[in-house]
Design brief:
Helix content is 19%, strand content 39%. It has helices spanning 13-24, 49-52, 91-101; strands spanning 2-9, 27-33, 55-62, 65-71, 82-88, 106-112, 120-124, 130-135. The two termini are 24 Å apart. The chain is of the alpha+beta class. It is globular, with a radius of gyration of 15 Å. A hairpin with a 5-residue loop joins strand 7 and strand 8. An 8-stranded mixed sheet has the order 2-3-4-1-5-8-7-6, covered by helices on one side.
């Protein structure tokens, strides 16, 4: 299991990433825009052209720590702009944690498959903490 901080932005993620790269001599390891995501993740229909170029999923190494970043379409409330991503080895572990945390939670994304995860869910638990639970997609070479 791995825990990764994930920062959510209101359309200005790219600017933040450039700042963090410079400030921390960080290394960008992944950058994906909404327009690049698998259409089964969500529909781009009706989105302004600007939003299609928002960051869907980015990863950066700051020192030895992995950080994740993304833009949101709806305004992120203060205190909910950071979440902890818990990466599990199997979908069953994701589902177990989700089922436990879902009691009294506000569900952001129910369990689903995404471009970058074979099993992903996001919620704010009954104590107000934002969690993202996932498995990694394995890259086949």
């Amino acid at each position: 299991m791995q825990v990764t901080p994930n920062y959510h932005f209101n359309g200005n993620c790219q600017k933040a990433l450039k700042l963090y790269e410079e400030a921390f001599q960080a290394k960008m390891t992944m950058m994906m825009y909404y327009k690049d995501a698998d259409p089964s993740d969500f529909s781009l229909e009706g989105l302004p052209e600007k939003a299609k170029n928002y960051v869907y999923h980015a990863e950066m190494m700051i020192g030895n720590q992995r950080f994740m970043f993304s833009d949101e379409f709806e305004e992120i409330q203060k205190g909910q702009n950071i979440s902890m991503v818990v990466t599990f080895d199997s979908p069953e572990e994701v589902k177990n944690a989700y089922n436990i945390l879902a009691d009294g939670a506000s569900i952001i994304y129910p369990i689903q498959e995404t471009t970058y995860s074979s099993c992903f869910a996001s919620l704010i638990d009954r104590f107000g903490m934002r969690w993202e639970l996932m498995t990694e997609n394995k890259v086949i070479e």
